[in-house]
Amino acid sequence: MRENNPARKTHRGACAILFMAVLLCVLFVLSFAVGRYRMSLVEMWNGLTHRYAVGDSAYNSMVVMIKVRLPRILGAMLVGGCLSMSGAAFQGVFGNPLVSPDLLGTSSGAGLGACIAILSGLRAFGVQLSALAGGVLATLVTVSIARSLMHKRSGLIVYVLVGIIVSALLEAGISISKYISDPYSDLEALTYWLMGSIKNVTMEQLGITAIPAGIGFLILAWGGYRVNLLSFSDEEAMSMGLNVRSFRVVMLFGATLMSGASVALAGVVGWVGLVVPHIARILTGPDNKKLFVVSFLTGAAFLLIIDNISRTLLYFEIPVSILTGAIGAPVFIILLLKGGNGGWR
Amino acid sequence: MKSGTRRRTRRIHILEAVLAAACAALFLASVCIGRYRIPLGSALGVLFGQTEGLPRTVVSIVGNSRIPRAAAALLVGMAMSAAGVSYQSVFSNPMAAPDILGAASGSACGAALGILLSNSDPVVQLMAFVFGLGAVSLTLAVSRIVSKGKSTVIYLILVGMVVSALFKSGISLVKYFADVENTLPAITFWLMGGLTNVTGGQLLFAGPLIVACLIAIFFMRWDMNLLSFGDEEAMSMGLNVRSARVRIILTATLMSSAAISLSGLIGWVGIAAPHICRLVIGANNRHLLPVSTLFGGIFLLVIDLIARMMLKVEIPLGILTAIVGAPIFLWILFQGDFLGGGE
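Output (structure tokens, whole complex):
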């Protein structure tokens, strides 16, 4: 009875958004204090309020916080949020809880784009742009091949199969670029880029990435509640005034912009887009309108925590994607095995 | 009616003979062709132990490098393709293949761990098998739970992707802990897939295993046919469905993990080769299994020849099989109608 009360449901969604927003703020503040360079709260406060002299401990902590930790924290939040929201959108559009943003070959395309840019001597900005373009292009290719197969059969399976094939080809391309690259300079850059890391994010890069990510966010936020209609059959959704086919493509484009932007910024970080929407769905229930926003917040918090662990757990830094795999995969399997529907439907 | 069937059977027997001959011819070609050309006579001589009067370099090249490599290509291709056919019939699922079910990345993860822990072939082999089997079981169990009993292609594929991703994370973890000087390069190059470094010793270990599995699976093709009718009908025809299924899955996994521990990750053979054969001769496993086994061997021998000869440097085999196999598979998707059977 209680679950069927729409007012309560809205309540639940709003509560989830508020809760995650507060949690994220707390984590954001705490993350400044975490790291190899220890500083006291007083030093931090003095540093932030400009009560320092050049060279003293408060000044040092200001430099560490603003120059080193701030870009990294913002980067983790942006990447986590983008991947999760894009994952939630993919799962909503395809109506399947096992879909991840990699499904259509976005990350392999971005990887190949980055490889080509690195091989042709570009660095930083060029690599990022080329990665984003590669990701979007790969998705376009997958979607158009899948659509030309649609006369035989429609549905998720065509997208999945074509996505597998396109990713395999792109990954062969990545292997080739690794193979022909100069092992003393390019190969290293390639390998580390592909491993995925938020270590070297700069404010400049963040600014550039925020543009496509923001556009994607707006598109998904606009389409959120219409995605709910997709859980009806196509005809029913159409009778409710939704142009199903073009709506799907628009949503996929928005989701791809977000995940492509995050790959361009931080390389391939797995599992976030697959797992976090499930956690968010437990908080909000199946309403996609709230789910998308909560996914963004939860993903940002999730990757922030992961990044803090990767900075502090061992003497050296653990690559983020290894940690997301080690934490995300078991969580995902538990969620699946727990049966239930995890708020799905 | 009957004579028609018989005629078709005879035609398929001829096809099998032709394929077997092609296998043998390609094997010889693969021994002879290369950066250092070897006359057919001396290749045959070394092959049958008549080494008198041949220059030492020739004997050494053929014996230590060409023959192990050609044999490995043949065996790996056969094993991957046969494993693909077996998985596809057991799950009555056209997309089942060592790569899709996660067996490939599972075995790769196990083998990488084996290389990290101890570099002896039996350990690597055993780890590859255990992890491969674990991955397949995980995929099956999870997909069964998630799809709530209905056997659907889509869940198997998606869960397979997730399980593969899981074991790939495992591989990066192993790589991360590996010694940069010698273990890490060993794992990296081995993962790219290739037959460059196959030695006679490795072959002596994995080869007999693959051959034994091939023979075993060859005698299970009737069971596979029965299984494709569906569980209840197969049972009513006197088949112990459960044990047959477990037997076939175990054999196929053993086979593909042995192949992977020999050659590293070589994708797409297990899915492209059986589908091409199915287009030509139909879905009867009695013929499909031997034909696609032979065809898989031919496929990989040809690919390996291309990999050696096309450019000045050798192209890693895994890259080539993806470039050749993936478009073939896409073409089959356009041609075939098995998408209709899907969900």
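The domain at 2-337 of chain A is CATH 1.10.3470.10 (ABC transporter involved in vitamin B12 uptake, BtuC).
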